Amino acid sequence: MYRYQLNVNDITDIFMLKTRRSSSAAPAAKIESDRKRKNSSISSADRKPTATTKDNKDKERDKAHKKKPRMSSSSAANQVRASHILIKHQGSRRKASWKDPEGRVINSTTRDSAVSQLKTIREDIVSGNAKFADVASRISDCSSAKRGGDLGPFGRGQMQKPFEEATYALKIGEISDIVDTDSGAHIIMRTG
Predict the structure, then answer these.
(1) What DSSP line would sit under 80-148, residue for residue?
(2) 84 belongs to the catalytic site
């Protein structure tokens, strides 16, 4: 293995050699670039500071440091947060879930059976015999089950209409009756 020790002059010579080779093809371009370089060689200390230049730099710096607002269909003030338990059934638009990827159980579940299950679950939660998040993580057909049914914050127009209306009608901590959507049957707990 060879080791070379290069100094700044060696690197400059190599760069100049490459520049000469590439510039021989376009001498007019080199002359023009030399003129521009010469005209712009006034140091920044010699330049007269102008208000507009300083203001523009300040504005650019401020823009770079500001946090950009989240793109959302509604502002944080108009958002709600909810958790839910979904039970899919024969009438659901997508007959598969994280629990039942093949959809065998879902295809054999009637809407009435899903509603009956949810009513029992709701009674257990309201009576204090079960915790919403625990039941959601075991029973819900929604992938939010991994988070105890938590859907996070959302605004108007982001959920199916019946789900949205039911959630906005609830008070924080309140649990809905059965809500039917194209996804299946739900119970919803507003959390924020």
Answers:
(1) EEEEEEEE--TT-SS---SS-TT-HHHHH--HHHHHHHHHHHHHHHHTTSS-HHHHHHHH-SSGGGGGT
(2) yes
